[in-house]
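Need tokens for this chain, all 73 residues.
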Amino acid sequence: MIDAELLKIMACPWCITRPEAPPPNIEKGALELVGPAEQPNALRCRQCGRLYKIEDGIPNMLVEDAVLPGSPS
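Here are the structure tokens for all 73 residues:
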């Protein structure tokens, strides 16, 4: 499980390096947990929709490994 305080400081590496502003009411590169509350299986960027898988409790934050919105997981 990813700690709530850690989730607050994590950000999507793709969005955080882009000049585009996020939609209103969303922090740049903000992430949300995906999957069961007791053991989420991914982080989703609220800005671009990229999915970063969590494997053995460790999120893979590499942009090249992220699943793009609309792509098969």
